[in-house]
Amino acid sequence: MYILTQGIYSLLCVIGFSIIFNLPRRLVPLASLSGMLGWIVYILLQQTATSFIIPAFVGSIFVGLVGELAAIYKKQPATIFIIPGIIPFVPGYGIYYTMFHIIDNNFSQALVTGGESLFIAISIACGVVIATSVVRYIRPYLLSQGDGSF
Questions:
Q1: Each residue of 97-142: pLDDT tens digit?
Q2: How many angstroms separate the CA atoms of 32 and 44, rounded?
Q3: What is the model's pTM?
Q4: How many whole angstroms separate alpha carbon 142 and alpha carbon 75?
Q5: Would you kindly state where each structural domain of the chain is located, as residue ranges?
Q6: pLDDT in tens, 6-24
Q7: Which DSSP helix (H) or strand (E) runs through 136?
Q8: How many other CB atoms are there within 10 angstroms of residue 33's CB atom?
Q9: Helical H runs in 49-106?
Q10: Nearest by Cα to 33 from 78, 3, 1, 70
Q11: Which of these, 42, 88, 89, 129, could form a disulfide with 10 (CB 3.0-4.6 Å)?
């Protein structure tokens, strides 16, 4: 039940940001599905992994792969599907608490939460880069299969 509710919340989150980013209406469902599935992967890995970096990394790889494949399928730029899809991964709580600890003059705790937020942000970026690189490598094979749209 927890995973289902988290999936619904992330779906709504990505729908909201897709609207804010002015995605074409016909592409919002696919972008939202990409973000929801990536967040479910994140939640599943977060329950089993001991690191806080691995779930964000693997989840962003998943969002990147789905976004790149959706871009090929819909003949649209991949960023349309990837950017809204990674919004749930952004460590807003960590950034908030980093600033809170700085204001509270607790610099050691600010360093800890800021470092965690930075590592999560880097893992998200690396995951998207890896997914994009993999799809660019296999894209000629995908386009040679059939009429060019899978």
A1: 999 999 999 999 999 999 999 999 999 999 999 999 999 998 888 7
A2: 18
A3: 0.86
A4: 13
A5: 2-144
A6: 999 999 999 999 999 999 9
A7: helix 107-144
A8: 16
A9: 54-74, 79-86, 92-103
A10: 70
A11: 88
